Amino acid sequence: MNTVAARLAPFGTTIFTEMTRLAQRHNAVNLAQGFPDFDGPEFVKDAAIDAIRAGRSQYARMFGDPALNAALAQRWRSLTGQAIDPDTQITITSGCTEAIAATMLGVINPGERVVMFEPYYDSYRATAAMAGAEPRFVTLRPPADLRAGQVTNSPFWFDMGELERAMAGARAILVNTPHNPTGHVYSRDELERIAFLCAKHNVLAITDEVYEDLTYGHEHVRLATLPGMAERTITLSSLGKTFSLTGWKIGWAITTPELTRGVRAAHQFLTFATATPLQIGAIAAIEQGGDYISSLQVQFRQRREFLATTLASLGFGVVMPRGTYFIMADHTEVARSMGVVGDVEFCRELPARVGVAAIPPSVFYDHPENGRSLARFAFCKKQETLEEAARRLRAIASVPHA
């Protein structure tokens, strides 16, 4: 008897679960899964605790606590200059992952095409399958100057001709910027080209912007702010990455009233509502979190440079990320010294033989060969955690072949 529906059977267990399990088994430093090993700000936690003690423990309004929707609307206006209605244009979801699912299920019909950039966050492909959508992939490629033992500041890139061919006849395009796992921050020029193609082919844009506050010297441009895009863009984001509260799962979708109806049509039957006291905590984060965000950006910039330099010194070819808290590195020379081939084998061997866990990104490609030379490392950790990881990684040179 088949126990998993055919539309989900190909995805199996997520790579994050597998690599975290390996990290735990070998007591490895977990630079695989993208969560901080430190807690979020006290004032945000205190607001949620106060809400619990005040009896805010029943269902929230389906599309969000009124005060949280209002805070997000004010934030959106201050960031973009666009006035939006908190009650008809914002939907609070259980993390951005649920927002992605609700959007796919709510606005995409079976058989319609959705364009995605690969490598992609793994839920994109799975939620497209849930919706019965047909994915079409455009590849983000490593910079040409990526070399073993060096750090390049050149970004990942994609072919505009490939993008235009994929966009013809599509229902929607899903754009993740800043991009997980590559760390690419789409430039204004790239987004203007995407906007042009959306208008040309009458395509909706779905943007995943969960790392919007984690950029390093590069402007985060919101696609919805470009001419003609407000009416055809669904902007998704969340609290977790910006405030180191990934377990709270507070996300949101911002779009037109018409597209909001589609998102909510699915959301009401997925989770209905998100945890009430955590929504109250999120209000404090959004209204009072400016100093915390600035401090976190400084810390992550330093840790990014520390890990990038460490990896390059060990023979990795490193792409310096422009955003997020991940580094993509070419492991070819290092894997050869260990006697292993490919990113999956390399990342499965690393916890046992060195005591560090990373993610093999080929699982995020429809064409896995495009990612087999790479590994993803997370730097959203305490400095002492990264220093311990560096100490262990330096042992690679003395690791015998299996």
Which features would summarize this protein structure in a list?
402 residues, alpha/beta, 7-stranded mixed beta sheet, single chain, Aspartate Aminotransferase, domain 1, Aspartate Aminotransferase, domain 2, 13 strands
Topology record:
Blueprint: H1 15-25, E1 29-30, H2 42-53, H3 66-80, E2 90-93, H4 95-107, E3 113-118, H5 122-131, E4 134-139, E5 151-152, H6 160-167, E6 172-176, H7 188-201, E7 204-208, E8 233-238, H8 240-243, E9 251-254, H9 257-270, H10 276-288, H11 290-313, E10 317-319, E11 326-330, H12 332-338, H13 343-353, E12 356-357, E13 374-378, H14 383-393
Parallel strand pairs: 1-12, 3-4, 3-6, 5-10, 6-7, 7-8
Antiparallel strand pairs: 2-9, 8-9, 10-11, 11-13
Helical element count? 14
Strand content: 5-15%
* Low-pLDDT runs: none
What is the N-to-C succession of helices and strands?
HEHHEHEHEEHEHEEHEHHHEEHHEEH
The side-by-side strand order for the widest beta sheet comes to 2-9-8-7-6-3-4
Tell the overall outline: globular
CATH class of the largest domain: Alpha Beta
| Major β-sheet profile | 7 strands, mixed
- Alpha-carbon Rg, integer: 21 Å
Q: What structural class results from the helix and strand content? A: alpha/beta
* CATH evolutionary superfamily of the largest domain: Type I PLP-dependent aspartate aminotransferase-like (Major domain)
- CATH architecture annotation name of the largest domain: 3-Layer(aba) Sandwich
Output the CATH topology of the largest domain: Aspartate Aminotransferase, domain 2
The total beta strand count reads 13
For the record, give the distance between the C-alpha atoms at the N and C termini, rounded to a whole number.
Answer: 38 Å
